[in-house]
Amino acid sequence: xxxxEDEAGSLISGEASLEAKPQPWDQPLDGENSxxxxxxxxxxxxxxxxxxxxRLQPDSIALRYMKRLYKAYATKxxxxxxxxxxxxxxxxxxxxxxQHQQSSWGQVTxxxxxxxxxxxxxxxxxxxxxxxxxxxxxxxxxxxxxxxxKCMCYLDVKEPxxxxxxxxxxxxxxxxxxxxxxxxxxxxxEKDVTTLLQPLVASNKRNIHIAVNFTCYKDQPNPVxxxxxxxxxxxxxxxxxxLNDTSAQAYHRWDSLRYKGSxxxxxxxxxxxxxxxxxxxxxxxxxx
Amino acid sequence: DEGIGDRKxxxxxxxxxxNLSEYFKxxxxxxxxxxxxxxxxxxxxxxxxxxxxxxxxxxxxxxxGDCPRLLRxxxxxxxxxxxxxxxxxxxDSSIPRPSCVPAKYSPxxxxxxxxxxxxxxxxxxxxxxTRCTCR
Lengths: 288, 135
Hints:
The complex is a heterodimer of chains A (288) and B (135).
Chain A: H1 2-13, H2 40-47, H3 60-73, E1 90-94, E2 98-106, E3 110-120, E4 128-138, E5 149-158, E6 173-182, E7 188-192, H4 194-202, E8 207-218, H5 223-232, E9 238-245, H6 253-259, H7 272-287
Antiparallel strand pairs in A: 1-9, 2-3, 3-8, 4-7, 4-9, 5-6, 5-8
Chain B: H1 7-10, H2 20-28, E1 35-37, E2 41-42, E3 52-54, E4 57-58, E5 62-64, H3 72-75, H4 79-91, E6 100-113, E7 119-134
Antiparallel strand pairs in B: 1-5, 2-4, 3-6, 6-7
């Protein structure tokens, strides 16, 4: 691998005898807008000349969730399972970079908890289009609820206050409330926040501030469980985003489905151009 | 064959029927014919296991072997490949013979830890060779 890396290095520094035209790797590798032409694995070969980029350690609970997702989506050899009908080929999990939380405990209403979360979504590359996003709450294994516990949750999603001179736009904030239930032996609770995040990610906002307030109450108050319950929901949620990477080196399930014969595709999944072509041909036949 | 010299001396030594396919193979296909081979690597060998969490082992496979002279029916090779073979054999042996290369690939799902500590599940195209051809 040493010679391989040397070769990759010489390619990058342009020592090797290449044609005059600029090579894809001449682009700035880490620039935000640099076309991601090099498969990430090759990029590692190139970057391995510089001491390996330091890597922050991921949250262990989040890593456990993603390993579970990997097992659901791919075989042991790493081949994507073909029985999945959705179109995303990328799933990213972000843990909040900053969070402030406080909770109060009301005998009658159960727990009132508020959290201020800041997510940095810089890793979402330009060719990655957002299809779905959820807030992911994880519950400690030890907690199990005798009865269904209901929560009312108020989310406030805003762009962080702009640090530069007077803001050109007042920070957008969306408030909506969610009703969800903690059920027995549930380890994860997912709440869909796609409608909130879509406009921000589409307009290239990558720092998202989410203020979460929720009140949970139970059918019958049971002091013994309260402290358990209190601990259970103190976990700050992670943000899960499902994306369709439109770049060349990403796997497009859609293409492979199409190659298998467009007749198998659902009508609405067919390419509109193709649809028109088919209908066009039929109508001309009728006319004849 | 009636009356044409000594039957034994003339007719080629034909093997008994059970290894007939072996007999013909020597004419039609080279010993180490172009085919798919495994190469199982673990990302720890490349010191990438600090950022690639899954899969544990990755088998990209590769194509190796000689391309037989009669390519058409076996590899779906274009006619150009046979032309190149004839050029190599009859006209100019400095022209390379057809090469054994991958013709089809399958994708690979990778679970990685990004530099900011976020976790990404991604599916990459063309990461495992699944069929070879001669070109």
